[in-house]
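Fill in residues.
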């Protein structure tokens, strides 16, 4: 299998070089680096990589330039996987990107403590998975409103839904909460029913469901 062509963007040059070096050593092919959103967009349009790893806050204003660039990339090159690395839980600004559901991730830099796990996560995103940092999921859950559609869910179903949003499979959820995979499947069916989400052929509807319903916070 050919290496995943990747562009890395972050205004912190040491962090950017570190991520690029790690990915290169791990079988990815970093085809370019950028320190601001304008350079990132130009590079992505030229190289058309399979994966973009970007910070949210970059020059000139250090607000949402990286995220805005990611949304532009998703609109222009929908097959390009995107991983947003952030130092902050930025719920409101992340929602539009995460709502895309496929081949997208949001991770907090401070919570990346295992190199192998990080590389595995990047690989899963490049292959189409959607991964949301648990801290963001918790922020969304805790901010639910009185008319939140999640109000109908039991505590166990909320726990399963949180793990779904982290990208775990039914088997992974079963191992995490010490139940059988069949029990998890029942919880998932119940969650989808209570949230009025009908079955589709889209394998990533689970994460999109979490984002869609928690977006109305």
């Amino acid at each position: 299998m050919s290496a995943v062509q990747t562009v890395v963007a972050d205004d912190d040059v040491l962090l950017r070089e570190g991520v690029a070096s790690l990915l290169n050593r791990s079988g990815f092919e970093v085809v370019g680096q950028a320190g601001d959103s304008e350079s990132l967009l130009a590079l992505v349009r030229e190289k058309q990589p399979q994966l973009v790893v970007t910070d949210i806050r970059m020059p000139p204003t250090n607000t949402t330039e990286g995220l805005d660039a990611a949304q532009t990339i998703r609109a222009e090159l929908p097959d390009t996987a995107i991983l947003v690395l952030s130092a902050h839980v930025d719920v409101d600004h992340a929602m539009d990107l995460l709502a895309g559901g496929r081949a997208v991730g949001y991770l907090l830099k401070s919570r990346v403590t295992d190199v192998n796990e990080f590389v595995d996560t990047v690989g899963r995103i490049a292959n189409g998975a959607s991964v949301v940092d648990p801290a963001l999921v918790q922020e969304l859950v805790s901010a639910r409103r009185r008319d939140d559609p999640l109000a109908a869910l039991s505590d166990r179903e909320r726990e399963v839904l949180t793990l779904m949003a982290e990208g775990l499979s039914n088997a992974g959820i079963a191992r995490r909460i010490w139940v059988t995979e069949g029990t998890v499947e029942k919880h998932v069916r119940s969650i989808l029913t209570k949230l009025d989400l009908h079955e589709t052929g889209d394998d990533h509807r689970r994460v999109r469901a979490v984002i869609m319903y928690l977006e109305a916070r």
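The chain has a mean pLDDT of 84.
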